[in-house]
Amino acid sequence: MKEELFKGLTEEQIAKVKACKSQEELLALAKQEGVQLTDEQLESISGGLFCSTPTFTCPECGSTNVSAYSQTSPVHKWWVCTCKQCGHHWES
């Protein structure tokens, strides 16, 4: 992972990131730490698949300036979204 992607993280958080063994672990860590990942960080984590994210509209303010990442379980896939304009979080 590029060092510039660690910008804004503490040394402790960086060590935890480097210890992650999968994308799922890394995304769970970000959620646990309350870290809002940038589009570049999400793209790096997803192996470049981030660009295939569908367009979402914030249900609170109507903005389409939304970051999203997918989550999967054995039975379904969903998106975790954050509006970059008003900060609203939701799952789709």
Key words describing this protein structure:
N-terminal domain of TfIIb; 92 residues; 3 strands; globular; 3 helices; single chain; alpha+beta; 2 domains; 3-stranded antiparallel beta sheet
What value does the average pLDDT take? 78
Low-pLDDT segments: none
What portion of the residues fall into strands of 2 or more residues? 15-25%
Biggest sheet descriptor: 3 strands, antiparallel
Order the strands across the largest sheet as they lie in space: 1-2-3
Query: How widely separated are the two ends?
Result: 28 Å
Integer tally of domains: 2
Q: Structural class of the helix and strand makeup?
A: alpha+beta
> How big is the Rg?
13 Å
Molecular shape: globular
**Helical content class:** 25-40%
Query: Strand tally, please?
Result: 3
Number of helices: 3
H-E string: HHHEEE
Description:
The protein is α+β, with helices and mostly antiparallel strands. It has 2 domains: 9-49, no CATH class; 53-92, N-terminal domain of TfIIb, CATH 2.20.25. Helices cover 29% and strands 18% of the residues. It has 3 helices and 3 strands, in the order αααβββ. Strands 1-2-3 form a 3-stranded antiparallel β-sheet, with no helix packed on it. Strand 2 (77-83) and strand 3 form a beta hairpin. The longest helix has 11 residues, at 23-33. The radius of gyration is 13 Å and the shape is globular. The N and C termini lie far apart (28 Å). The model has no long low-confidence stretch (mean pLDDT 78).
